[in-house]
Amino acid sequence: MATQYIMQRDTSGWRLQVWVSFGLALAAAAMGILQLPGQELDRAFLAIGFFFCLFAVFAVSKTIRDNREGQVDTGSWVMTVWIAFAAAVALTSWGLFRMNIPYWQKGYMIVTWLFLVSSAFTLAKTLRDNHDADVMDRQGPSTVAGAVKGG
């Protein structure tokens, strides 16, 4: 028997908050990278690290959600996604650690990086929840009623 879920749609206020948070995180990270003193190569490395982390977050989120009821992806794919996420976090951490900038600037970049990663996970979940709710709506009221009863 397949697991059934109760699907509740997110409020428009929640969706707005998620998008605003993600936009602010992206803007704060971009401004921090652009304003950092030092070599352009360091800033470019940090920008690539932030984007690597961002894309890895979306890949991890999708992989976890796709495999929640049983593994549908190959073990190699799941391992690749997790290794990419770990590499993104490790390399970005290393890049921030080795940058020759004051501690308060490192602190700002760490906070914006964590804000970006956190808001990306929240955005990925919100987008996927909305997609799942749309799929349930298209399947019809009997499926939705069955999911509510089965919850």
Structural commentary:
The protein has 151 residues and is an all-alpha fold. It has one domain. It is built from 5 helices and no strands. α1 runs antiparallel to α2 (40-66), α1 runs antiparallel to α4 and α2 (40-66) runs parallel beside α4 (103-139). The longest helix has 37 residues, at 103-139. The two termini are 13 Å apart.
Could you outline the blueprint of secondary structure elements for this entry?
Layout: H1 12-35, H2 40-66, H3 75-98, H4 103-139, H5 141-150
Helix pairs in contact: 1-2, 1-4, 2-3, 2-4
List keywords for this structure.
mainly alpha; flat; 151 residues; disordered C terminus
Taking the sheet with the most strands, its summary is: none
What structural class do you assign from the helix and strand content? mainly alpha
Number of domains: 1
Q: Determine Rg (CA atoms, Å).
A: 19 Å
Q: Terminal Cα separation, in Å?
A: 13 Å
The ordered H/E elements are HHHHH
Mean pLDDT: 86
Task: Work out the strand percent.
Answer: under 5%
Give me a quick take on this structure.
With 151 residues, the chain is mainly α.
